[in-house]
Amino acid sequence: MEIGIVGKPNVGKSTLFASLTLSDVPIANYPFTTIEPNVGIGYIRIDCVCKEFNVKDSPKNSFCIDGNRFIPIKLVDTAGLVPEAWKGRGLGNQFLDSISKTSVLIHVIDLSGSTDIEGRPVSPGTHDPLEDIKFLENELDMWLYSIIRRHWNDIVKLTKMRKLDINQVIYEKLSGVKLSIDHIKNALSSISEKLGVPYNKWGDEELIEFTKHLRRLSKPIVLAGNKIDYDIAWENYNKLKEMGYDIIPISALSELVLRKLANQKIIKYLPGDNDFTIIKEDKLNNKQLRALEKIREKIFEKYGGTGIQQLLNHVVFDLLNYIVVYPVRDPNKLTDAEGNILPDAYLVPKGTTLKDFAYMIHTDLGKNFLFGINIRTKMRLKGDYILNHRDVVSIVSTV
Ligand SMILES: Nc1nc2c(ncn2[C@@H]2O[C@H](COP(=O)(O)OP(=O)(O)OP(=O)(O)O)[C@@H](O)[C@H]2O)c(=O)[nH]1
Ligand SMILES: [Mg+2]
To answer: Would the CB of 168 count as within 6 Å of ligand 1?
Structure first.
């Protein structure tokens, strides 16, 4: 599972990426700072079960700070997108390649309105971010449409001649875009039904409708309304929220500042906290102190935080519908074979059964599955048990 960070140039995509991954990537106030996509690891945050079980955990695939478990997830920061990128304009082709593998997109928009449609700096409040939302959706739709259009006649012909399943044929022909067969099925049947025309009679108009539906399913978008440190952002945020957009207000730059200072132990701050504490005031100059004061006043008091952690959690839990499950080997000590307590926290899709989960951990564990134990209740679980968020389970197998 990969999350793509997208948007027009110069809105703060790389700043968001850097704040989520703490990697050192080029950030600058001009368009096309990023050319090659940056790939890195961000972390979602949950209340760790260690508190409830009253143990000091020793995580391996994730980490735990003050009872908060941080679980890794792959992120891709992409090149800025300009109108008509789908025709190869700007860095269009690089961009589109880099989002092929993603299952959800974070669209960073500039709520301060201080960048024009191509990312050039303009005075704050002069550009309407709504334009950027529409343009990006259109770019993505047209990109997918251009691919589908190219293959469509072949798809229809092949399906008819060889009496194949149309969904499977689309899936294979468009394998580069990493669509799921369920999404194809869903889009094909709902658009055929809605338009009352079978797919083999579709013209361009029907194909565009199909593409739009498929794009919404396969690359859903969350808006990250960036630069909320500008006063004008408040108005734009509320306007877009009232229009029904799924938008999280963020300040990537503030988060980056806070995470760097927290890393140096100058402040105490965990991503997702609704406040921070200065620990070593003597390590900060006046300019930094003023910047922190401003972050507290303009971001924390007004919005309740930088929004960065909330954004990532929202994407993973609400859009992708994932849950977290802890597997342990020893049901009493909550350890793995090496004695690590609550070593792993897995992100799995909602609806995953215990047996599916066993296969995810190891094929042998799936093949030789006997039963599971719910550590909270000590009850035995069958293979078809549907896992819940924050379940702790032990899987017993014949080996
Ligand atoms: N005021 C303010 N500025 C920000 C914020 N986030 C990013 N910026 C600034 O926006 C400018 C562009 O940031 P980048 O992260 O390079 O933007 P990008 O979207 O990756 O740009 P390209 O790679 O060129 O597409 C830089 O000057 C950042 O400091 C924020 O939360 N508030
Ligand atoms: Mg960039």
So the answer is: no
